[in-house]
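Researcher: Please generate the 3D structure of the following complex. Treat every line as part of one assembly.
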Amino acid sequence: MNMPTQNSGQADTADQAADAGAKDAVVAARGLSKTFADGTVVALEGASFDIAPGSFVSLVGPSGCGKSTLLRLIAGLIDKSSGHLKVHGKPVDAPRTDVGMMFQRATLLEWRTAIENVLLPTEIKRSLTKEDRRNAAELLRMVGLHDFRFSFPTQLSGGMQQRVALARLLQTGADVLLLDEPFGALDEFTRERLNVELMRIVAEVGATTLFVTHNIAEAIFLADQVFVMTPRPGRIASIVEVPFERPRSPSLQTSPEFNEVVAEVRDILGEDH
Amino acid sequence: MSDRRSSSYALAYWALRALPHLLLLLALLPVWELAVSTGFITSILVPPPSEIIASIWELYVLDGTIYPHFLITLTETVAGFAIGAAVAITLAVCSALSETFKRYVSPYAIVLNVTPGIALTPVVIAWFGYGMGSKVALAAIISFFPIFVNALTGLLQVDRDSEEMFRSLGASDRQAFLKLRVPASLPLVFAGLKIGLTTALIGAVVAEFAQATAGVGVLMNRFSFQLDMGSSIATLLSMTLIGLLLFYAMEFLDDRVVFWRREGRRSVVSRARARRWAAKFGGHESPETEAASSK
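Model: Done. Output below.
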């Protein structure tokens, strides 16, 4: 049931397989690998998967399993060593406008108000219009910070700062959202609340989401699919389908069915989890 | 309206805090006066406060001798500082932008730093003469280094995550420099400017001590040669005054520019931006409430 070879079988097939996979998938990878410069550290090996439009994928695994590397490859922040990677059918070779990324730290600019921070992505592309400003205000309303749109980041709590960062991510207009442990630095209560909000928001904008975490329950609770990753070399050990209906409430996490999925993921990760 | 009220509160608060200091000073002065008048301290070397006050009265009020000198030293300091700062910041920006440039400039910056700047005084006077030129030059030379080092450190200390965020947004190097690195460097740039300004004053005064026709340094030299200690100290106080004036001017600028590091300024700027936004793009809600509620 949890054979680690589930998806890597077709890793070495020819280009046509990559093309076939890319047609309906938003993100498609075949045998995607990343070895860092000195050639000894294999950060990611032979990752193959297709991500359907609008789906929510969690990447879970211990440190060094390549989850951040995979995210940075998709973001175009680093170059792959071998294999194929396409987003919307086009190879990834640089950061692009249809892919947006959010980090564990909010990385807001301290000298800009919340709304000025949200407008940054647009400002980098072109000069601002009245429509952009309205949209930014609307996004801040969506993340529940409309009343704080003129506050500076240092006047906001950690959770609020991440909400601003989320609004900034949505302002990019990207439909592939890459979230690298976005709420990892927050306390558990805030994190849980933000997770529920995140699910609502990405469903509302219809974005395809990749969410990195090392919390197994969180990974399952949020996702349609969980990529379970193992280290040395970093690879996708298995892709677990999450069967639960949406919308989901936090109480789902106490159900026996949920815990079965948790146990399945734990099993794949092995004894160190 | 509320701003005005809170600023008058602030003034009252400040006055209340200053009061004990003032009282302590006033209590110490009679002790000093007594120590001199009883001969415990020689009055030729240390003048009693009454003599200093008399000299202040004469220099600053009766004949106003101090003012032309005061203005000259102030001008030399500000001009020297401006030149030093302009060169330092230009070189820091170039060094931050180009690794090669930095490699070629930093040895000279280090040499300039380890050489006592004050020791250049005779050379600078030989080059620029007895007038204001040599004072401006020395002030510029010795204020250069702290500003250069701080600005360069500020421009080079980049938050890796923020930089990656800019890259993921497809920002050009130019955009990342102007929108991220420059503003992020400002707190350190201002730290450097504050040190540089104080240093510039030292440069101007030392050059005046060495060889000059006017300036508070000249005046002080003259008084101490005459063993007129009261006037010497009264002149010294004018240097303190120049220092304070420049320091607070810089502090004021720092407060305005690096507002996000100052809690009080932050909420003021936040409200101002909300008002500006409402005026330019129309705010359907009153912007006054939010900055207040964010506290």
